[in-house]
Amino acid sequence: MIDAEMVQRRASSFSIVPALAVLLGVMALISLGVWQVQRLHWKEAMLARIAALQGAPPEPLGVVLNRLGEAGRPEVGEVDFVRVQTACPTLQQTPTLRLYAVLGGVMGRRLITACPIRAGRFRTLLVDRGFVPDETPVAGGPRQTAPPLDAPVIGVLRAAPQLGWLTPPSDAAKNDWRARDIPAMAKALGAPSPAPVFLMLETPRPQSGVPMPAAVPTDIPNNHLGYALTWFGLAAGLIGVYLASLLRPSRPLPRPRSFVKRSART
Question: How many CB atoms are located within 10 Å of the residue 206 CB?
């Protein structure tokens, strides 16, 4: 049973500064855990869409792009991971941009070109033709000798990631791109009114195998549940340590030696 003296000692040992620091730390850890739970739901929905995509037939590009809402306010998420088909006979004849990428642990470039379309207010669609390892030389200019494509182009629409201050800068003059910047890429290619999505090419595949189409990632990790449990566990641990420090028996401070010696002499 805790006597009145111990309760008084606990009350005297309580300080607002450590309590406030613990509170802020717990709030930050819980916020990180909640954010990971939200990421978990988003990742599960994305994986479900990818799984459903495996057997989905391609839809007409114009029909899909018309789902993007009213002009100037596209809802790109509505068409993310949707398989489409369209005509693009000049796909292999137009200039290409080189976007830095890593595929299967191999560094290389993804070739980005523009396909003229007529779908609502959009007149151009940027097409990711596939991956080329760094050791494979690829020309970036137009190839007028390439035959036009008779078969329709089939691929998966993907939203471009949001650009932030951490996004590495691209060098358009050197054709060295580090981010999927649709407005800047469209300007470099002379492509008017681009759609706010990329077409990740699936077919047709070049006979040479270069570039290698890689429309849908196959190794998407989903560790957000473990991350969330880690943050929540750290929050619980911090609360436990703080409570233990409050309940720990307090020891009286030792008296100075000089005082002890004087007391012994008297």
Answer: 14
User: Cα 102 vs. chain centroid, distance in angstroms?
Assistant: 15
Q: What angle do helix axes 224-247 and 16-53 make, rounded to 10 degrees?
A: 160
* Rounded Cα gap, residues 153 and 199, in angstroms: 9
| pLDDT, tens digit, 9 for 90 and up, residues 185-203 | 999 999 999 999 999 999 8
**pLDDT tens for each residue of 49-106:** 777 777 788 999 988 888 876 555 556 667 888 899 999 988 888 889 999 988 878 8
Q: Are 81 and 158 in contact (CB under 8 A)?
A: yes
Per-residue tokens: 146: 């390439």
Confirm if 185 and 139 have CB atoms less than 8 A apart.
no
Q: Does residue 88 sit in helix, strand or coil?
A: coil
Helix (H) or strand (E) holding 109: strand 106-119
Q: Return the structure tokens found at 144.
A: 């007028």
Query: Could you tell me if residue 193 is left (phi over 0), alpha (psi between -120 and 50 degrees) or otherwise beta?
Result: left
Residue 1 — very low, low, confident or very high, per pLDDT cuts 50/70/90?
Answer: very low
Q: Integer distance in angstroms from the first to the last C-alpha of the chain?
A: 38
User: Averaged over 21-43, what is the pLDDT?
Assistant: 92
Is the sign of the CA dihedral 142, 146, 148, 149 positive or negative?
negative
How far is C-alpha 190 from the chain's CA centre? 28
- Reported as a single tens digit per residue, the pLDDT across 149-168 is 777 899 999 888 888 788 88
Percent of the chain residues topping a pLDDT of 90:
36
Domain boundaries, the chain: 59-203
Could you tell me if 94 and 189 are in contact, meaning their C-beta atoms sit under 8 angstroms apart? Answer: yes
- H-only helix segments in 100-210: 182-189
